[in-house]
Design brief:
287 residues, 0% strand, globular, mainly alpha, 12 helices
């Protein structure tokens, strides 16, 4: 494996973590599904002509297109919709990250059943160690937050990213990233528009922070991080890819400290170390 290939997972973690920062910047000016709908439409506006201009190959049959579309609904519509709704309802980003950070354990449970992947004892130890680390990182944020009414969309997001990772690895691990993005985001935009029309006012305050957040989420997250995620799913096992999400809460905490001045206590720093160690173990190849 080349040096650049080894760096891709860490670049993915950093870019993925900035999504929470982008949500914090933009959600005060738009409701969550409306915000995401504008994001999806902008992605389609940019990616569709790019795919056509570069003559990117489209799937050879309708069934493959359906599989790619379903994976998009799970990874984008359900996961992102759940995360944005949870944060909008007041669930701290760290707690949201903790809930979604349970994904590697669920993926490890499903990988053997769905994909026939063998999860080694070392990987299980890494996954459990990573979960403990994530819990330590966000434990100071649980405090007095009334969690019950806010956790449902976060758990929906957890189900979306877990099922989406397994589904894509099982049914459509290989597709062109340009045309695949169009196929993934088209049904995602339609479903998100229907739910936004039924449940939200769909008003937007076009402020500078909102525009910045929108462009960041489109260019950096949807083009950069999602492309890296697709590449990682294509080249690695589902458990190895899922284990990277344990690094998201610590990475998000560091970015929030740098951008917003949020401080980190001793338990959070210890949790980061455990999470890094857990990911190292969980990403070990099965033997």
């Amino acid at each position: 494996m080349s040096r650049s290939s080894r760096l891709l997972p860490f670049l993915f973690v950093f870019l993925w973590s900035t999504g929470f920062v982008g949500a914090k910047f933009g959600l005060p000016y738009a409701e969550p599904l409306t915000f995401l709908l504008v994001r999806y439409l902008l992605i389609l506006t940019l990616m569709t002509p790019f795919a056509l201009a570069t003559r990117a190959p489209w799937p050879s049959d309708v069934r493959q297109s359906v599989h790619i579309g379903v994976s998009g609904l799970l990874v984008h519509a359900l996961y992102l919709g759940g995360v944005f709704m949870a944060i909008k309802r007041g669930l701290p980003a760290g707690v949201t990250a903790l809930v979604v950070g349970m994904q590697p354990l669920l993926t490890a449970c499903g990988a053997g059943l769905v994909l026939g992947e063998r999860v080694t004892l070392r990987q299980w130890a890494g996954l459990l160690l990573g979960f403990v680390g994530v819990a330590l990182v966000v434990s100071d944020k649980l405090g007095d937050v009334p969690l019950l009414g806010m956790l449902l969309p976060a758990f929906a997001a957890l189900c979306g990213i877990t099922l989406g990772t397994l589904y894509q690895k099982r049914f459509c691990p290989h597709f062109d990233l340009r045309t695949g993005s169009v196929i993934q985001f088209l049904p995602t935009a339609v479903v998100t528009a229907l739910f936004a029309w039924q449940t939200e006012s769909m008003r937007i305050e076009w402020t500078a922070p909102f525009v910045f957040a929108l462009l960041w989420l489109v260019l950096v997250l949807s083009f950069g991080a999602i492309s890296l995620l697709n590449l990682l799913i294509r080249s690695g096992s589902a458990v190895n890819v899922a284990s990277l999400f344990y690094l998201t809460p610590p990475s998000t905490a560091l970015i929030a400290w740098f951008v917003f001045g949020e401080t980190l206590g001793g338990p959070a720093l210890a949790g980061m170390a455990l999470a890094v160690g857990g990911v190292y173990l969980a990403r070990a190849r099965a033997t």
